[in-house]
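Title: Comparing notes on inverse folding

I've been comparing how different people in this forum approach sequence design from structure. To keep things fair, I'm posting one structure and asking everyone to reply with a full sequence. Here's the target:
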């Protein structure tokens, strides 16, 4: 397979050399950098047209071939760079090589073993590509996006005394979150406080399967269910040319091991879907019914189990009219005079989706066998008063919840603002509340929402907790309502001390004031660092309703700060994690916390042990690794989410 690919690339290169008139080599074709020679420049070969764009279309996922397969520089510009320091130099220094990639190029740096050491996507302007801790020989490959003539490339050796700081431990800390009346001009920060209680800690277990968008649920007996979605639906196809397939996994030994209980692919007994889109699992805390949803664009196939996945029933082929995407499923008590007809599951089941132009729901009164559209949108396609000049806001949303009275709540960052849709009549009508504008006695704080899928939780006394991350500093915020969503407390910035940015926070709650939140977070201040490490944080508070709550936080991933779950970009879709991460309170007497993660920074991608550049560089995403290992966290110490009854 590799030889055939090389022959094809060589053939395409020769054809383009003849067709486009390119040829020769960079001038000069090689150079040295190091402590005694800190800068250089060279000129690319003559380029013409959108060569790389055409080859990407022909080859699928493609960057640049090595010079040996592109001798005429027909596809990419090649330059031989030597960095005159041994690897041990970086034990006492930090830095690397910075290459200014011209405006009309993608940039790549490869080692002699053809391993990607650095990359940069096309930005429309000159930009810096960094090879961290550079040592030895590299081949700099520049792929023209829309380039004509020649371009100048400059490179610099950058170093300073002192090695990269190596982080260790799980960063447990306690702190008070800052309550803010307005978005500050300077990035806010929380500070550690003394704490002498039980520390928050988690068991991290890999499920041994890829898991994009990993949701989780736990029943009263402690059986946990996790959806592991990997791109392996089509046999013998590589991951980047495959379709997603979801496998439902179960753990009955408190997160020590995971095994498949996937609904069988037999008509009438399972979901019958060898390839699906968004994965999703939902476990009802009260009745233990497990729901597995397989999205199929025009709708979803639903399977459910009442015996912990031993057997499955085929539910409805659900469809909210129009396109279906980004689904959520949740259940609550009957309301608005509606009666359920399944004695084993006397709840209303809600299925809500993004329809691109808005968010819509349907409901089931028979435990998932049939669904009826509720009709009115949860969120319309545009706000009557657009935020930040954005009139079209789409339909992506977070996961829905219900309270003890059957009120339904759906969160989302709508037009750049944290909003909540509320229905008291089982989704027939929805009332939307802008969290920021509903702050008690304060007026708007102007703390916008960066993400789309904000998160909502309800405690056992129907208090609401809403989390989002802001569009200025990418930090997490919490606001609370004690009147079913009508008014809200001042936003409280809840990032652990040292955390500089987060992504997609999600929340669950137990008894009043007890909440748990998870998110990927980074302690790196450099948002341009293509090796910027991210870790899985879990944050807990047992007195969130007080005027000065205490928060406990810990890095939950195995290995702690020394083994991040991601490196590179993490804003919106974080590498190959995709949209949803999850956290739930188990329905046991303690309310044990369970959370999920997708580890894109594994041994396969090298980045768990050394600082390397991003993968899948043609996408322009740094750190978009093909690794996406599913991880489950289970609380093993720290305060419970359910307070003891007095």
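Reply #1:
Here's my take.
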């Amino acid at each position: 397979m590799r030889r055939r690919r090389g022959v094809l690339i060589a053939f395409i290169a020769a054809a383009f050399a003849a067709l486009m008139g390119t040829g020769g080599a960079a001038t000069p074709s090689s150079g040295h950098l190091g402590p005694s020679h800190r800068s250089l420049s060279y000129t690319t070969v003559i380029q013409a047209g959108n060569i790389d764009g055409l080859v990407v279309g022909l080859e699928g996922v493609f960057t640049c071939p090595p010079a040996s397969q592109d001798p005429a520089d027909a596809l990419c510009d090649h330059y031989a760079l030597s960095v005159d320091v041994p690897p041990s130099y970086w034990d006492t220094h930090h830095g690397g090589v910075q290459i200014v990639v011209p405006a009309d190029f993608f940039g790549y740096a490869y080692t002699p073993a053809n391993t990607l050491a650095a990359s940069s996507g096309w930005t429309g302007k000159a930009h810096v590509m960094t090879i961290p801790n550079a040592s030895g020989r590299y081949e700099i490959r520049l792929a023209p996006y829309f380039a004509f003539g020649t371009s100048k490339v400059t490179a610099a050796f950058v170093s300073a005394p002192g090695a990269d700081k190596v982080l260790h431990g799980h960063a447990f800390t306690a702190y008070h979150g800052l309550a803010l009346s307005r978005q500050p001009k300077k990035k806010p920060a929380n500070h550690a406080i003394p704490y002498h209680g039980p520390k928050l800690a988690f068991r991290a277990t890999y499920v041994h399967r890829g898991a994009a968008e990993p949701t989780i649920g736990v029943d009263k007996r402690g059986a946990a269910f996790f959806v592991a979605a990997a791109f392996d639906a089509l046999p013998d196809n590589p991951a980047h040319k495959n379709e997603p397939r979801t496998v439902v996994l179960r753990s009955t030994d408190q997160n020590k091991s995971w095994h498949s209980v996937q609904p069988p692919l037999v008509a009438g007994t399972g979901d019958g879907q060898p390839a699906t889109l968004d994965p999703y699992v939902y476990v009802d805390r009260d009745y233990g019914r497990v729901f597995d949803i397989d999205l199929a664009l025009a709708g979803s196939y639903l399977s459910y189990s009442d015996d912990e996945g031993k057997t499955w029933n085929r539910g409805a082929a659900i469809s909210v009219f129009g396109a279906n995407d980004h689904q959520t499923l949740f259940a609550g008590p009957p309301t608005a005079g509606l009666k359920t007809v399944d004695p084993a599951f006397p709840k209303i089941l809600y299925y809500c989706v993004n329809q691109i132009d808005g968010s819509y729901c349907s409901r089931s009164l028979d435990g998932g066998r049939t669904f009826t559209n509720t009709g009115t949108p949860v969120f319309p396609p545009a706000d009557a008063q657009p935020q930040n000049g954005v009139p079209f806001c789409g339909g992506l949303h977070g996961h829905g919840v219900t309270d003890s009275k059957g009120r339904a709540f759906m969160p989302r960052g709508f037009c750049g603002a944290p909003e909540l849709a509320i229905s008291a009549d089982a989704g027939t009508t929805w009332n939307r509340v802008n969290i920021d504008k509903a702050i008690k006695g304060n007026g708007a704080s102007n703390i916008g929402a960066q993400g789309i899928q904000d998160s909502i939780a309800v405690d056992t006394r129907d208090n609401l907790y809403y989390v989002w991350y802001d569009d200025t500093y990418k930090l997490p915020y919490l606001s609370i309502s004690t009147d079913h969503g009508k008014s809200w407390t001042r936003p409280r910035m809840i990032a652990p001390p040292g955390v500089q940015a987060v992504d997609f926070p999600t929340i669950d709650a137990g008894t009043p004031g007890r909440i748990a939140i998870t998110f990927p977070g980074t302690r790196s201040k450099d948002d341009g660092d293509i090796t910027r490490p991210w870790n899985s944080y879990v944050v807990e508070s047992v007195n969130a309703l007080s005027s000065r709550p205490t928060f406990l936080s810990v890095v939950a991933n195995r290995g702690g700060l020394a083994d991040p779950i991601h490196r590179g970009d993490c804003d919106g879709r974080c590498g190959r994690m995709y949209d949803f991460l999850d956290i739930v309170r188990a329905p046991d007497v303690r309310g044990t916390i369970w959370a999920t993660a997708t580890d894109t920074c594994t041994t396969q991608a090298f980045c768990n042990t050394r600082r390397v550049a991003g993968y899948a560089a043609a996408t322009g995403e740094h750190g978009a690794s093909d690794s996406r290992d599913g991880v489950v966290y289970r609380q093993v110490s720290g305060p419970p989410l359910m307070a003891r009854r007095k």
